[in-house]
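Researcher: Next entry in the queue.
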Amino acid sequence: MVERSDRAPLLDWEEVPSAEKPSGAAPAAVHTKERLASPSNSRAPSGCSAPGLGWSSGPGGSTHSRSVSNADGCSAPPATSSDPTGEDEALHSDNEDHLSDSGSMELSLEDRMVKWEEKDQIVSVFVVAFNTRSGNMLEWCLPKDMDLEGVEFKAIASGSHRVTTDFIYFRKGSYFGLACFANMAVESAVERGARMKSVGILSPSYTLLYRYMSFLEHQVRLQLQAPGHYSPLEAFYEDKRALLPPSGDGVVTACPANAWGAAINHCMHPEMKITHPAGCMSQFIRFFGEQIMVLWKLALLRRRILIFSPPPVGVVCYRVYCCCCLANISIPGIGEAVPEFRPFFYVNVADISALENELSYVACTTEKIFEEKKDLYDVYVDNQNVKTYRDGLKPLLRLSNADREKYRKLTEQRQMLLYSQEENGDCVSSEEDLFILFFLEQNNRIFQTLGEVAGSPDPMLTQESVRAMGLDPHGDRLFLLHLLEIYGYDTLLVSEQLCCS
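Model: Structure for this entry, 501 residues:
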């Protein structure tokens, strides 16, 4: 069988890495393992906000990755090569079982879902350059009629002239983008000694963008060394472009209606693979320490979180991603009326009007002026400093005893995992899975308990029921009251024992 490459045709400069299969794990099991949790709350079909499906985005297919570390600590997502041979063997085996059981020639939903996941969804490719006279400018793009207004300020972040390389995730309208930036010294008075460019792509889903990181990194270097050489980008776009619907409304139909069930079950892992040796989840935990418990509460309450940091931007985009992972919920029907916790990734002053209309989001910026726009956010994160100007939220910035206990358990589980990886060569479990599942289980525990109390003859929250959620009856009282209001449990009665902290 001919192996289908993840690469565009004519791109013979790039080596396609061989996919490695974990020993002792069947391909089907690998698919299940790689979709454990989501970057947004995973709900049942009735209130579905399937991960990666916001703004008509589609889930990512399972791929095995090759690490490509950068110098900024948390490096770019890996260049990948899917293993269609192994997947097809698994599908062939599944098909034989399916056909033998039913006698039907129709492909199963699982098979249709996997084939759908493999489709590429690139809607635009572009090159942005810094001009010493006019500033950031769109140099080239495909398709020519694509509305890319403002993308030049997203693909080259404010302050990027201070770094040599970077990668940036961002949102543009209903699409998500990934751009690779590079800054090269040149002996040119016109360019003032530096040439800066960025090569980027747009897709309806951010979950697949990591596949093309290596390609974009190579292309931006090519654009710096040989400006105007666009043929590889043209070939890439022709190979990967998404088919927009004939209605022309600019929305990509990413998921067939009969695949929603599989989307809920199999798209729960966000697929933004991290290639730093320790992983960005690990870096996220070390960077914020116990403060991640504060961020967890604010994310679960669907607050507007803005993270400030000077360039490089790539590592901060992953902090946005990690914050989204804190709010996972997989209990059917939970949070149907709650605003979706949307990742905006990098934002600049051009996004102010868009953020004004958002009820819930998490984003990052390099522009300090945002701190003065207090009406745009509920929580402002400056490095490890989490702060708010809203009096009703200030008590939530204090850690409760239950917070410290949860953080201790998370730290212990990480240490056990790292020991297992070092001593036993455990390559199947990952810190990303551990981190995501830890908070998913914590969130499910809260809402399961709330559901049980709401359905009981005496719907009253007592100290015992609050402890059953893993919360502190006194220290987490305000958090609990916010939670009841936001998720529609405000009809529950609260014991007077919880009213005094």
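Model: The longest strand covers residues 175-185.
Researcher: Noted, moving on.
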